[in-house]
Fold:
Amino acid sequence: MTARILVVDDIPANVKLLEARLLAEYFDVMTAADGYTALAICERNQVDLILLDIMMPGIDGFEVCERLKASRKTAHIPVVMVTALDQPADRVRGLKAGADDFLTKPVNDLQLISRVKSLLRLKTLSDELRIRADTAHTMGIDDLMRAGEGRADETGQILLVDGRANSQERIIKALKPVADVLALSDPQAALFEAAESPFDLVIVNANFDDYDPLRLCSQLRSLERTRFLPILIITEQGADEMVVRALDLGVNDYIIRPVDPNELVARSLTQIRRKRCNDRLRASVKQTIELAVTDPLTGLYNRRYLDNHLNVLFNRSMARGRPLSVLITDIDRFKQVNDTYGHDGGDEVLREFANRVRSTIRGADLACRYGGEEFVVVMPDTSPEIAAAVAERLRAAVENAPFRLKHAGEALNVTASFGIASRVGSVLTPDQLMKQADLALYEAKNTGRNRVVAAAA
Structure:
């Protein structure tokens, strides 16, 4: 995972220490010695995450964070406050200022890197949603952010999974001013409840005697209906290994026992606000541009949206020096399907093919129906090797399970051919990238079909 991280601290030794740790993980690191310099850097540069000291000359970290979060240009940048202050009141103040996390010096290396990677994963998804919203806006489609605006002040809905009645009572009491809390002690019942009800946050208390709480976290991340539901885990002091594993699984935040009620409230509100912001982005994109930029048969984006959005992704890839890959796939001998089963049968195959594309690709990838039986997947931050693996996984998903034609009462074996290309070397435009992928698809068709061919670098 590559990203540009800004370290802000007025003590050079602290800067050097954090810089060394981050460079060892291959992050691009920028530094600032005071809050005004940090704000100026964020205005002029693309910054993916900020590690921010609190006690600094000029303006302190709290004010820097507040200014960053008040600006539309920088509000989306995750801020981790790194400070020697270790009082719960200081953590709460930082979270209320808009900080996404709070680490206490001396910083634990495992927690630092895990926190950074976790927040960067969340930012990648949020960035993709914002870019898609901006793409729709440039196409003349307005009012993107209005859908779901009214939920901002609603009481939060929290699912608490806790194996002990006494701790359930304490947590419910702490959260009562800001949320309605449903407490369950059975993790499997909680998984079902989370999938069926509209919660804003799941809190998992790791106090079970005979159950691994990380299993529930993993299951919540695996289910489509709970994939984007924030998870906060409560752990014992010193449970570094569990914290690191939890963040790697996609858990959004953690808190250490004994739980400070004010910190619990602040962290919960942060997760609820973030979820509702992303929910609004998803809803606005879906509701506002659905008719204009989606294919009515398959529900995937159409060529009109691809033509606009590919330019945005390509330019971002060039500016950041990150890879971008494109996959073009074509259903083999699709004309025979139409000739044999009619257009109703062909439409069933296209819809099911789109479903398999949708279920195989990753959350940040963009899937489109390019026209007829041809589909395109754009994969940001994806190397040629990973793109080839995604294409092969999709090829197998198409070949290995028959397509069931309900109107004909038959099961049909279908295959597809794939061409992939990546932004490397002399690829200077989105059109050139698409042309290379199309030539690779042509080769796949001419060399036997049902295969993946990568364009020559």
